[in-house]
């Protein structure tokens, strides 16, 4: 009997302890009772505590209600405060009534001392960056850029039916990894070029976002290889048991016809969707306050619904969210229970700070708990990359991801939004997590990434894919790899199976360009070094007189193998006339030329927008989906913007 009492007591204690750790997440929207418009900047506080939050610029909020607390206080200048008791529902929408002492006047001042004269007055100082990025607390603009809009100041509808241009993107508030362009290498002293493949395409859709907003992208936002690899190319897949086929094409460089341009293209085998292995997915969703914009969390929700539509009964998906803390909002669920998954997505709301590190740790735990040994185990992170709480620095995040990827769980990243977009963090996470990185700037891009390219986005057919090119100095004086600056490997890494590299998914294609200075040509870009003072000159190596220009070595691993396989291809010194090259060669070359112009590359030589656009038009080919035509339009816009930028620079100098 004593044992029974002890067991009951311990059980009750365990249940009590469990309850003490449970918090409720209360979310909703605060409106004005007068006009039913949402109110930004309302303070919501847990009664009897210091825990508080504010509504975002759309009036939305999320707050954690500790166990034992049942009341929330709502307060905002110009409105009557309310104290509301929380009942069973976790959704609480509130209507605030105006107070008698309301704000009747809005004064805009310049740079002068501000004196508070009335009890009901309020003054706020707004920085230029905040104005440009539409980040003024207590001020909300409703309506699309260019349309009739309503400005709400402290919740009051003060100015209506005015027109505004789209907000300027402040690039200095977005972060990008610095890119140091690959320089020309001497083929005698450096005959080997080694790099990892990269199938990411985030840079192109980010470039599109800037151009559509009437701005040129920052130079470090332009990754030429990602812009090229955004597009599909007419490449034959492997005809044997190899997972990847190698294609090459050689011609002259349009920006310097004395130079050669070599295209190396890889095509992964395509696996029919019905034959793909089962997936264990974890959606890791950033629901912090920075995700409240319409082009962030609402677009995330639409994207995830598209991905959910592709899931099969044998697939499973869980959902983890993070803001001030991380939590599981959907346990691992079969892919055929779509209504359950949709409901979890619909209930997402933004609010709070960003504990990204805690969210990633929890996502890895959920993925590990449901690991499929012969399946596809992947975390899909949707965020603007603005990690500011927890394991937030890039180095800490890298270590976390590198440690966890050995378990066979990949991490892919979907980036959203503008203004505080942290490209550097998201690129790092995807690279270290053996996953893909895409920037979703609109619903069409979401459809392309998550439906049209579903297999390639999720299912790996070749991992740790590396390329090593050996140049023949008898044919090549110098060479330069265009792009892939963050994928360069040491020559010894090529044979090292422990060295991580990029993966290729079902149907993926990868293109790399080398600009080659042929042997015997006098050229300003040929590397040169003065003779050494303290060493005798080395004897020149014996150079093969073969007609081979170079040899391509390709190394990869099967998805479930730790030992790599090797294949090779030889390229002869037989260039085709540029106008005789394939449409794919022309179009990809035009992207490379535009990329150099956007970066203001020191290697752009005679590159110019008009030439690149004409080449793109010549290589448009069968453009059923219209993506190549879209690029041509964007390039034409970039040409105009570059002229405007040049004129502005001249005026500033004067």
Write a structural description.
The protein is of the alpha+beta class and 654 residues long. The chain folds into three domains: 23-96, Sandwich (Immunoglobulin-like), CATH 2.60.40; 185-271 and 461-522 and 545-653, Immunoglobulin-like (Sandwich); 273-457, von Willebrand factor, type A domain (Rossmann fold). Helices cover 26% and strands 26% of the residues. The chain has helices at 2-20, 128-132, 202-212, 224-229, 297-309, 338-346, 356-369, 394-405, 423-432, 443-452, 454-458, 583-599, 609-618, 627-653, and strands spanning 24-32, 43-46, 52-54, 60-65, 71-75, 82-85, 94-96, 139-142, 149-153, 156-162, 185-186, 192-196, 244-253, 256-268, 279-286, 316-322, 326-334, 376-383, 410-415, 437-439, 460-471, 476-482, 502-505, 509-518, 548-557, 564-572. It has a six-stranded mixed beta sheet with strand order 17-16-15-18-19-20, with helices on both faces. The N and C termini lie far apart (95 Å). Mean pLDDT is 82; it is low at 2-21, 102-150 and 154-166.
């Amino acid at each position: 009997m004593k044992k029974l009492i002890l067991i009951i007591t311990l059980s009750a204690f365990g249940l009590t302890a469990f309850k003490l750790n449970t918090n409720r997440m209360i979310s909703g929207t605060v409106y004005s009772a007068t006009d039913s418009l949402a109110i930004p900047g309302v303070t919501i506080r847990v009664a009897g505590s210091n825990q508080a939050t504010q509504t975002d610029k759309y009036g939305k909020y999320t707050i954690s209600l500790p166990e034992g607390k049942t009341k929330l206080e709502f307060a905002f200048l110009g409105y009557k405060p309310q104290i509301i008791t929380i009942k069973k529902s976790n959704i609480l929408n509130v209507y605030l009534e105006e107070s008698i002492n309301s704000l009747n006047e809005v004064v805009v001042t310049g740079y002068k001392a501000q004196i508070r004269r009335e009890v009901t007055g309020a003054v706020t100082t707004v920085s230029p960056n905040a104005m440009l990025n539409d980040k003024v607390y207590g001020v909300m603009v409703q309506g699309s850029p260019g349309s009739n809009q309503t400005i709400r100041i402290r919740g009051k509808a003060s100015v209506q039916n005015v027109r505004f241009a789209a907000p300027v993107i402040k690039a200095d508030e977005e972060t990008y990894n610095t890119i140091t362009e690959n320089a020309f290498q001497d083929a005698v002293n450096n005959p080997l070029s080694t790099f990892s493949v990269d199938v990411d395409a985030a840079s192109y859709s980010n470039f599109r976002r800037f151009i559509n907003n009437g701005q040129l992208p920052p130079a470090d936002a332009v990754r030429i290889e990602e812009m090229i690899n955004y597009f599909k190319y007419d490449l034959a897949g492997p005809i044997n048991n190899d997972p990847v086929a190698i294609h090459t094409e050689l011609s002259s460089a349009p920006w310097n016809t004395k130079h050669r341009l070599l295209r190396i293209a890889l095509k992964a085998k395509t696996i029919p969707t019905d034959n793909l292995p089962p997936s264990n997915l974890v959606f890791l969703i950033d629901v912090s306050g920075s995700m409240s914009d319409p082009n962030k969390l609402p677009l995330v929700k639409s994207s995830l619904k598209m991905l959910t539509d592709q899931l099969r009964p044998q697939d499973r998906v869980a959902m983890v969210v993070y803001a001030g803390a991380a939590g599981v909002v959907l346990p691992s669920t079969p892919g055929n229970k779509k209504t359950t998954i949709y409901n979890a997505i619909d209930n997402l709301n933004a609010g709070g700070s960003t504990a990204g590190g805690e969210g990633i740790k929890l996502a890895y735990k959920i993925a590990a708990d449901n690991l499929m040994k012969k399946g596809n185990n992947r975390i899909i992170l949707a965020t603007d990359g603005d990690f500011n709480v927890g394991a937030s620095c890039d180095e800490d995040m890298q270590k976390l991801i590198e440690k966890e990827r050995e378990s066979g769980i990949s991490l892919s990243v979907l980036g959203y939004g503008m203004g505080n977009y942290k490209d550097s963090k998201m690129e790092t996470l995807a690279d270290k997590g053996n996953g893909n990185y895409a920037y979703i700037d609109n619903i069409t891009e979401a459809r392309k990434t998550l439906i049209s390219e579903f297999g390639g986005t999720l299912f790996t057919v070749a991992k740790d894919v590396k390329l090593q090119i050996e140049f023949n100095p008898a044919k090549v004086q110098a060479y330069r790899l265009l792009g892939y600056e963050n994928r360069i490997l040491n020559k010894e890494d090529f044979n090292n199976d422990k060295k991580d590299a990029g993966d290729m998914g079902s149907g993926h294609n990868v293109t790399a360009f080398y600009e080659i200075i042929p042997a015997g040509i006098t050229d300003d870009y040929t590397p040169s070094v003065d003779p050494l003072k303290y060493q005798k000159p080395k004897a020149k190596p014996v150079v093969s007189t073969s007609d081979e220009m170079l040899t391509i070595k390709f190394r990869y691993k099967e998805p479930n193998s730790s030992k790599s396989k090797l294949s090779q291809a030889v390229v002869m010194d037989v260039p085709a006339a540029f106008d005789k090259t394939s449409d794919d060669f022309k179009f990809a070359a035009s992207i490379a030329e535009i990329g150099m112009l956007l970066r203001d590359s020191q290697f752009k030589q005679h590159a110019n927008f008009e030439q690149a656009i004409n080449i793109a038009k010549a290589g448009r080919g069968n453009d059923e989906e219209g993506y190549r035509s879209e690029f041509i339009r964007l390039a034409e816009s970039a040409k105009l913007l570059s002229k405007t930028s040049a004129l502005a620079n001249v005026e500033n100098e004067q």
